[in-house]
Amino acid sequence: MLEWDVPWCETCERFLSPSTVRTDGSCPKCGRDVAPGGAHAREGTPEADEPLDALPWHFKLLLGAVTLYLGYRALQGIEWLVAHL
User: Fold this and answer.
1) What is the value of pTM for the model shown?
2) Residue 48 domain-assigned?
3) 68 and 35, same domain (yes or no)
4) pLDDT tens digits, one per residue of 27-49
């Protein structure tokens, strides 16, 4: 399991981005000291060696439709250029 050093405020019970923590290491909301770290990766996070899921059919359909449309518009643009040169 991966572990990152993300500031955690016990009083506010929330994670803070490192840029929001004051220079003295305190919480910007309550002013108490912030615990450095304790954040863990969520369970079920895909690892680098796991295969990716296949693309959904509707995404492939959208990609094909966009390709056809842009191809058609490119042909119209070429025809327009030929006619006006």
Assistant:
1) 0.42
2) no
3) no
4) 888 888 887 664 444 555 556 66
